[in-house]
Amino acid sequence: MKLPRILSRLLEKTPVMLSAAKHLLYLLENEQSRSFAEFTLSPFASLRAVRERRANGLRMTLRKGFFSSLLRESARRIQRPAILRGLAFGCSNSICYHFGAGFLLKKIGRNRNSISCEASFMGKGRRKMAEMQNELSARQSILSRLADARVRTDQLFEMVTPEALSDRPIPERHRIVFYLGHLEAFDWNLLGRYAFDLKPFNAAFDNLFAFGIDPVDGGLPSDQPSDWPPVPEIHQYNQRLRTELDRHLESESYGDADDPLSPTGVYLNVAIEHRLMHAETLAYMLHQLPLERKVPKPAPRIAAAPRAERKMIEIPAGTATLGLLKQGGAFGWDNEFDAHSTEVPAFAIDEYKVTNGEFLKFVREGGYQDPMLWSKEDWEWVQQEGIRQPKFWIPRGDDWFNRSMFAEVPLPLDWPVYVSHAEAAAYARWAGKQLPTEEQFHRAAYGTPQGTERPYPWGVEPPAESYGTFDFARWDPSPVHAHPAGRSAFGVADLIGNGWEWTSSIFKPFPGFEPFPFYQGYSANFFDGLHYVMKGGSARTAASMLRRSFRNWFQPHYQYVYSGFRLVHN
After folding, report:
1. pLDDT number for residue 298
2. What is the CA radius of gyration of the chain?
3. How many angstroms separate the CA atoms of 340 and 468, rounded?
4. How many CA atoms lie within 13 Å of 480's alpha carbon, on the beta-carbon side?
5. Which H or E run includes 108?
6. pLDDT tens digit string along 185-204?
7. Could you give the C-alpha distances from 150 to 220, 270, 362, in angstroms and in order?
8. pLDDT of residue 381
9. What's the CA gap between 323 and 446, in Å, rounded?
10. Which one is predicted more confidently, 26 or 433?
């Protein structure tokens, strides 16, 4: 049996597929008793690989990005008719499949979202098969997640016109060109040099692109575009770096990669989530670029919707559990550990985030001109910077417009307002209420009237489109009442996605905090009393970081983050 020429070339050029082929070939030749394997490849499912034992064999569900194949030589090496032969592989955005005439298929199924097949085979070594399949599944899941994260950030840089790469849209941050090299340099410094002890091939770039900035003393970067390497040189660095890392990742054994607490699991999860964080924070930066310096895309669709009535929901006293257990079997950043519980007194909280329409009243009634509504430091900031409205608003005569990612649109009154912590705190004083604490957010979002707690506000199901605006679903927010299915057990809406939510809590370590030995400053550098905790997530927050324990933080005068707020009454 010969595979089609195009598929043969694909096998020859894809080391991941060749590795998968070797493993699958071993499985087919060494299964001791008759059984079947079922393969499912779906571009719409979440990234994971699940393995379960059945009385009649091994069932494997392999999700998006998994490549499984037989080497071309399998046709001549295996002559038994009960052997599965051919190729089944998943593409990143679609499904491609080919079954050779030598298959002994029990069932083939196909629908809009997936293709599956069952095939009989003979062999020996069932235990070894399970061990090797577990390793293969873990490797493919991790590599697929890394590949997807790379696609996310690559697409962001493709949005920028070439001449805009030297721009600095946010004064407190590096120029865009820095981030073009930073994402790859971070992966190399962590995985290549720290985890795998590979020799550097461009140590100067490794150091130049190593760390971002977050000035807290008012000092701003003063570098010039000419201080940075030419973009083609950065692209060459990135390409060689990815090639070196991928070659090593594809050749190494990662039997513990699916264990998020193993060294391998931690390193890879850190690399993936670091990149996904920048997929969001880079969006903040590109949002501030002039429209003509971005590749045009359609303007946001603003659907007419009934106005959300403002009301508060009573939350009874109860327990809130924050953080992750160190031995709980789940990945988390160092500031998420250790899990601990606290008793939260009864309070009332807004059903929805504060909207543009509600904040507009604060602006029209002189909120930015009243020093009594601002702390001393915040008022000095408002006066020095001439702050008169949220950063995403544009005044035009008597009308207000919103700066969306790809257009300026009339201010959507039912979208959540995006503001700094200082602006949110001033609004709270104006309204005679307070920003919630981190503990109060947890109680309202994850608690239940029965005293139990949920992993998500809506229950135990993983994040899905019906529950909120997140996981890169949109470039801009949705109306605050657009996702009733995402309500918490107490009826509080829009807690996850559609904009982070400021709390009144200073970013501090949890009891038992230990910094990552390979990234000691990730959290500890910001335990300075100058950063506030944010909870929830935005439209550009990856699903993996919507977990209950995840903590975000920013300085109080940073206006560029996709963050809103809601109020409480204690």
Report:
1. 80
2. 26
3. 27
4. 29
5. strand 105-110
6. 999 999 999 988 999 999 99
7. 29, 14, 41
8. 97
9. 13
10. 433
Which residue ranges make up each domain of the chain? 5-124, 135-293, 319-355+415-569
The secondary structure element, H or E, covering residue 12 is helix 5-13
Can you tell me the distance from the alpha carbon of 269 to that of 544, in angstroms, rounded to the nearest whole number? 10
Distance of CA 521 to the CA centre of its chain: 21
CATH superfamily of 135-293: dinb family like domain (1.20.120.450)
The long-range contacts involving 267-270, CB below 8 angstroms and separated by at least 24 positions, are 267/190, 267/191, 267/194, 267/195, 267/518, 268/142, 268/146, 268/191, 269/331, 270/190, 270/333, 270/516, 270/518, 270/519
- How far apart CA 477 and CA 414 sit, in angstroms, is 10
138 φ, ψ (degrees, to nearest 5): -60, -45
Residues 145 and 106: their CA atoms lie apart, in Å, by 31
Using the Cα atoms of residue 71, residue 39, residue 242 and residue 250 in order, give the sign of their dihedral.
Answer: negative
pLDDT above 50: residue 525: yes
Q: Is the pLDDT assigned to residue 69 strictly greater than 60?
A: no
Question: Domain 319-355+415-569 in CATH: superfamily?
Answer: paralog of FGE (formylglycine-generating enzyme) (3.90.1580.10)
Provide the 3-class DSSP secondary structure of residue 568: strand
Runs of H (alpha helix) within 54-196 = 74-77, 126-158, 176-187
Neighbours of 407 (CB within 10 A): 16
Strand order in the sheet with 532-535: 552-554, 532-535, 500-506, 563-564
Q: What share of the chain is helix, strand, coil (3-state, %, to 5)?
A: 35, 20, 45
> How confident is the model at residue 135, as a pLDDT?
52
- Residue type for position 471: D
Average pLDDT, stretch 112-126? 40
| Per-position b or e across 8-44, b if 16+ CB within 10 A of its CB | eebbeebebbbbbbebbbbbbbbbeeebbbbbbbbee
What whole-number distance in Å separates Cα of residue 538 and Cα of residue 407? 19
Q: CA-to-CA distance for 417 and 422, rounded, in angstroms?
A: 13
The conformation of residue 498, written as its DSSP 8-state character, comes to S
Residue found under tokens 């020095």: 384
Helix (H, G, I), strand (E, B) or coil at 118: strand
* Two tokens, residue 171: 């004064």
Name the nearest CA neighbour of 314 among 354, 282, 269, 344.
344
Separation CA 532–CA 556 (nearest Å): 7
Q: How many other β-carbons are positioned within 10 Å of the β-carbon of residue 3?
A: 21
Q: What is the spatial distance between Cα 430 and Cα 533, in angstroms, rounded to a whole number?
A: 22
Instruction: Fill in the amino acid letter for 431.
Output: A
DSSP string, 40-89: EE-SSS-S-EEEEEETTEEEEEE-TT-EEE--TTHHHH---TTS--EEEE
Q: How far is CA 100 from CA 5, 29, 58, 83, in A?
A: 13, 18, 22, 11
- Please answer whether residues 50 and 133 qualify as being in contact, where contact means their C-beta atoms are separated by less than 8 angstroms: no
Ramachandran quadrant class, 15 (left: phi over 0; alpha: psi -120 to 50; beta: rest): alpha
Parallel, antiparallel, or unpaired for β 563-564 and 500-506?
parallel
Instruction: Please identify which residue in the block is written with the tokens 């770039």.
Output: 205
Contact 117, 58 (CB under 8 A): no
